[in-house]
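Predict fold of MFS transporter; 440 aa.
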Amino acid sequence: MNQTNAAIGKYRWTICSLVFFATTVNYLDRNVISYLRPFLAEAFHWTPEQEVIDYSNIELAFKIAYALGMFVAGGIIDKLGTKIGYAIATGLWSLAAIGHALATGTGGFLIARVFLGITEAGNFPAAIKATAEWFPQKERALATGIFNSGSNIGAIIVPLTVPYIASHFGWQWAFILTGIVGFVWLGLWFLLYEVPQKQRRLSQAELEYITADQVIENDETDQKPAKVSWFKLLSFRQTWAFAIGKLLTDPVWWFYLFWLPDFLMKQYKLSATDIIWPCALVYMIGSVGSIGGGWLPLKLINNNWPAYKARKVSMLLYAIAVLPVLFSQYLGAINIWLAILVIGLAVSAHQAWSANIFTTVSDMFPKHTTASVTGIGGMFGALGGILLTMLIQKNMFVYYTKIGKIETGYFIMFCICGFSYLSAWLIMHLLVPRMKKVEL
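Predicted 3D structure, encoded as tokens:
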């Protein structure tokens, strides 16, 4: 098309901003507990070993619930549609976040984390479906990178606010206030969101731009698309490529999200308030990767690269960019900020990777199945996190805590983090060399 971007209009970026806001809220709610750990240990009188065990169990409960939620979230959102499905998920996880304030011990937190995990599973299937509905293929990685940067913004806001809130008003208010933000988003969502074909604020020029490179599918017409079962979706190599990619790389993100504060406090003897800016800087760097990760394939596609090649080359570069995290502790022995920089680079590379692996779903599958396939991948990612916690983190961290060498446990974890992405890229490439579109 010869129309300029200004003439086309930019309402699709308003939708991207809404999804970014929702993802930010999602990560505010799930990440709060990472920075309340020392406050909870004091309130519930945890010993050092009991702290590792109870915190691991709370983390594990969230991951198991998240995996179970992913089992059904994608299908429910495909059935209800993006507007209603996303609204229900956000409303429920905001209630679950507030419910943490009622917990009086480990058992209460386990229950709250289960409800939070199940309901938060709706975010990414809904977000990817909204992106597939509102963006042409060449812009999806950029749009995904922008909304996915909400996970970094949420992770930045939490260390800058939660320790202060907990210190001055009590740890319960950290959960209550973050939960309330979700209801603010709900009002904006109902006010501004509708699918492009029904959105009166959308110009005809922008609608044509959005759908120009898309095959008109049943879900863009009045005809209801046929339901596609998980068993059918699991028969495709494309589904397994996405699922295994998530299985191997999502646990790394979980590790940074839930254990980075503990690593900094134990490795460098920092307090809960001392880690505020180091943690915030890690996720600030990560935000750059999230948006830049979507920009690179867009640039390559605009230079006439095939979409699959642009995606594959970009993801390989991001997988390589993770490798310096292997040296984080060595560099940290020189200066803590060197460790922060290489961990930030790894987080940035993960977010760039994440923007692209999510986009492979809409590259390879019809739009009426994107939430379901995203749910499958999300479930596998959560299963990877569960296995990592059960087989490595929980037992390994307890063991090295007992013998007073927790830094060795963290070194092993950084080695796992460093090589996960190259392993995932190779498997994905072998399964789907050209990411051919699935025909249903």
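The two ends are 29 Å apart (CA to CA).
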